[in-house]
Amino acid sequence: MNLYALTEHMPREEEDLYPEEIRLSHTAATLAKQFDDYFHEAQRLQKAYASTIKLLIGMEVDWIRPSSLDLIQGLLRTYSFDLFIGSLHHVHTIPIDYDKRMYSDAREKSGGTDEKLAEDYFDLQYEMLKALKPPIVGHFDLIRLFSDDPESSFVQWTGVWQKILRNIDFIVDYGGLVELNSAGLRKGMSEPYPKAEICKEIVARGGAFTLSDDSHGIKQVGTNYGQCLSFAEKAGITSIVFLEEGAATKDSRFPGIATNSVSLIELQEHPSFFCLEGFESFLGAHQAHGSGGLLL
After folding, report:
1. Of 225, 203, 214, which Cα lies nearest the Cα of 275?
2. Which pLDDT score, from 0 to 100, does residue 266 have?
3. Where are the alpha helices (DSSP H) in the chain?
4. DSSP characters for 209-226?
């Protein structure tokens, strides 16, 4: 890979520790120290391997409640990030992607149905989008992970679908990128995040995508990228946008970071993709003509 972004989860407040963090005796202070260690190690790696790979350093934010804004802004002031990903992992301050029990607790708070919880999720996402205008929007439809039917269509719920379209329009309007996230496949679903029906609306409204494996360990790096590209083609996505060092800064919060794009066909020819799991599914309909030196 020529280009890769590191985006550690931001530290959270004491009341938002996950069960495993509590078992390991973590506190808000230890998470903050762990995050600080991450940033400085990422800087070391960025310099040490500058001749072979371009590493971007960022974070994935957790929008949990309105007070999350102060914590996020504090981190943006403290660290010289290249980017951040705006994500939701909680609704009603309850994790919705940790396990089925917690998801069910959040669903009950919303009125007891997946539809109502999805409405609340996309409203909270809209709140996050308006407050932060994140350069990249993470796992747009994560809410489906522990729903009763993760494969079902959001279009069946008129209220939910209208909120999805509202959020897409807002992202397109300020120029954000939507993460095409292969973790949905890794977690057993037939589509990455977001679903094809959402991707098609993003394309139709002039939106753009960047590619992510959402890896939480070395073994997950690049997982299912081949399937992701095959999916992207079927969903009408023709190119992938990526961030890189450059003069044409799009977001004033990240001076020196510019956007560029690469076609799916160019990605097909990139040598790193020949080594990735699932790439055969994309090659099935294409014949490679050489190799390039592009991204990822």
Report:
1. 225
2. 87
3. 19-23, 28-48, 68-78, 100-110, 114-132, 158-174, 183-186, 196-204, 225-234, 264-268, 279-283
4. EEEE---SSGGGTTTTHH
The C-alpha R_g of the chain, in whole angstroms, comes to 19
Structure tokens at 14: 């004491």
Token look-up 């807002």 returns: 170
CB-based contact 278:225 (threshold 8 Å): yes
Q: Do you know the residue count of the chain?
A: 296
Give the whole-angstrom CA distance, residue 221 versus residue 213: 6
Query: Please, how many CA atoms are within 13 Å of residue 222, restricted to the half-sphere of its CB?
Result: 17
pTM of the model: 0.90
Residue 286: per-residue pLDDT: 42
**Which tens digit of pLDDT belongs to each residue from 232-276?**
899 999 999 999 988 777 888 999 999 999 998 888 777 766 555
Sign of CA dihedral 156, 143, 281, 197: positive
Q: Give every residue of the chain whose pLDDT is below 50, as ranges.
A: 278-296
Task: Collapse the DSSP code of 81 into the 3-class scheme (helix H, G, I; strand E, B; otherwise coil) and give the result.
Answer: coil
For 250, phi then psi, to 5°, come to -90, -35
Q: What pLDDT is stored for residue 217 in this prediction?
A: 66
- Asked if 203 and 234 count as a contact pair (C-beta separation under 8 A), the reply is no
pLDDT at 281: 44
What angle do the packed helices 196-204 and 158-174 form, to 10 degrees?
Answer: 50
CB 11, CB 34: distance < 8 Å: yes
- Residues 6 or more apart whose CB falls under 8 angstroms from that of 95 comprise 18, 89, 102, 103, 106
Token reading at 285: 């309909």
